[in-house]
Design goal:
Length: 417
């Protein structure tokens, strides 16, 4: 069976979706089986990012030309006209792209569109909407993003053969918002991407600490500064701890600085006098990321909306305790292996941070619980469940392992000895 996977994201730009996709592709490359995976890319950067290939994977580069000279000319004229009018291609209500036949020419049995984008085609399709945040927090999106998401997500969920989500909370949301059958929506939890990376040594950690001038003790939040990631209230919690409790808690954060949010974040940080407590490191290497995790006092995830949180998986894998918001799918994921707080209440958040920053026994207990909870997740199992979904969407017979994987939600019901 030939499975196409569309790769339209890149590291350093697309955050957790890019990390999850790379981890899935890496894990699929470790599976035995008759499947061949065709990675459909747009540029050489993506090839370099996902190389070296496993034996069961190969690349196909999308052609710049559609192969239809008349269509290419008309597309170019339309683009020039839009640019001249200052529209930058965004004219009217967005339309769902339709395949020009190139995807079909690859001889695929099933096509996985895993990164929220979607294209109509004549191939059985598996789609990942990830989450429907735009319907719950529309204020975080401009009008063009809102209309794009509503058009693409709704069309993709209604027309795909299967929909993959990471948690029951997101499944319920997709079913309720888009009116699709629950049988069409497959829950497949993710796992810790850092488990697939090389180990770091004490020398690596010392070098990383010196490279970034990291404090001796700090809380860690690795996420792009999109508004729903809620850095502002985390700042307020830190300021309250310093001013009311006399506890100075440094924060180290990795990920991209979301430009529309940068001014508000920097302004609030200055107002609260946190310039010396907050370090934004941007995107870091995989080796540095693991070292930063392992040297952190704890992970704090104050996000307002998550399908599941890759940093929580990573924190358990790297042996640090977890504090998380108590919203959307996060309580399902955390279970008893972390402390929860109200992300809208900086005082509640601050109380949890204080406990983790000062109570060694609590941290040790949560680290052990995190190890147990981490054992519930494995990217190879995630990959096998994705493969079973591909087989079912393509009309292939499922073996007993496939059927068992698709019948069980190990996020809520762990498989333990």
């Amino acid at each position: 069976m030939k499975v196409g996977i569309i790769v339209d994201v890149e590291p350093g730009i697309h955050g957790g979706i890019a990390t999850a996709l790379r981890s899935l592709i890496t894990a699929l490359g470790k599976l035995d089986g008759p499947e061949t995976y065709v990675l459909i890319v747009e540029n050489q950067n993506q090839v370099d990012w996902l190389s070296p290939l496993a034996a069961n994977q190969r690349f196909e580069m999308r052609p710049v030309s559609s192969g239809n000279p008349v269509r290419d000319v008309l597309r170019g004229v339309k683009g020039l006209a839009n640019k001249a009018l200052g529209r930058d291609g965004k004219v009217g209500w967005p339309q769902v792209p339709i395949s020009d036949g190139w995807l079909e020419s690859l001889g695929l049995d099933v096509l996985h569109q895993p990164t929220q984008g979607f294209i109509y085609c004549a191939i059985p399709t598996v789609y990942n909407p990830h989450d429907l945040q735009h319907l719950h927090y529309p204020q975080f999106f401009d009008l063009s993003d809102l209309t794009w998401r509503e058009t693409i997500y709704r069309a993709a969920c209604r027309t795909s053969h299967a929909i993959i989500v990471n948690s029951q909370w997101i499944k319920d949301d997709v079913v309720a918002q888009f009116g699709v059958s629950p049988d069409k929506v497959q829950i497949i939890p993710e796992a810790a991407p850092t488990q697939l990376l090389a180990e770091v040594t004490d020398e690596d950690k010392a070098a990383t600490r010196a490279k970034y001038t990291l404090p001796e003790r700090y809380i860690f939040y690795p996420n792009n500064t999109w508004p729903h990631k809620n850095h502002l209230r985390l700042f307020e919690a830190m300021a309250w701890l310093r001013d009311e409790k006399g506890l100075t808690v440094p924060l180290v954060s990795t990920g991209a600085r979301h430009e529309p949010s940068r001014e508000a974040l920097d302004s609030r940080m200055r107002e609260l006098g946190l310039e010396d407590q907050v370090q934004f490191l941007g995107f870091v290497s995989n080796e540095d990321l693991r070292a930063i995790y392992q040297m952190a006092r704890c992970l704090v995830v104050p996000s307002l909306f998550e399908a599941n949180s890759l940093p929580i998986f990573e924190a358990w894998a790297e042996g640090i305790p977890v504090a998380s918001s108590n919203v959307t799918a996060l309580p399902e994921q955390v279970g008893d292996a972390g402390l929860l707080f109200d992300p809208m209440d900086p005082h509640d958040m601050a109380g949890v941070i204080e406990r983790l920053f000062t109570d060694d026994a609590l941290c040790a207990d949560l680290i052990e619980k995190g190890k147990v909870r981490l054992s519930d997740f494995d990217f190879l199992r995630t990959a096998r469940a994705n493969r079973a979904t591909y087989r079912r969407a393509a009309g292939r017979r499922l073996d007993s392992e496939d059927a068992a994987l698709l019948a069980h939600d190990w996020m809520r019901y762990p498989i333990r000895d």
